[in-house]
Design goal:
The chain has 148 residues and is α+β, with helices and mostly antiparallel strands. The chain is 36% helix and 32% strand. Strands 4-9-8-6 form a 4-stranded mixed β-sheet.
Length: 148
């Protein structure tokens, strides 16, 4: 019996996939637990419409991520920090501070977990930080740390 999975089923397939299951397994396990629906013409059409809508949404989100990457190139972030002798900062500049400054200065909201900071910033200067925007798109944030 052909069925369309409504949820991921271990050992069978992923949500939205059409599989061939034995009649008893489908009738006694998958269908009563609403893990699958029979593969009728109407259900197959619904599945195709959902896949099409999902692809369109992913394309729109990817385009938004690319647009955000372009916008980040033109938005330098300026941070001020206190320092001791030799230009070394008291503490360090973290991705949280970069995220908050980006939102305050340019109105761009990026989660601190998406900003890749290999090492904490402990000196004055200009830094380029990578930022994961999703859908294999990454942007670059220009950060300038000055004495304040």
């Amino acid at each position: 019996m052909k069925v369309i999975l409504q949820q991921d089923v271990k050992g069978q397939g992923k949500k939205g996939q059409m599989i061939e299951a034995s009649d008893g397994y489908a009738r006694n396990f998958l269908l009563p637990r609403k893990l699958a629906v029979p593969a009728t013409a109407e259900n197959i059409n619904t599945m195709q419409q959902q896949e099409k809508a999902k692809r369109a949404q992913e394309a729109a989100e990817r385009a938004a991520a690319l647009e955000m990457a372009e916008k980040l190139k033109e938005c330098p972030v300026k941070l001020t920090a206190k320092a001791g002798n030799g230009g070394r900062l008291f503490g360090s500049v973290t991705s949280k501070e970069v995220s908050e400054a980006l939102k305050a200065q340019h109105g761009i909201d990026i989660a601190k977990t998406k900003i890749l900071l290999p090492d904490p910033i402990k000196a004055f200067g200009t830094y380029q930080l990578k930022c994961k925007l999703g859908y294999e798109v990454s942007g670059t944030i220009n950060v300038t740390v000055t004495e304040g």
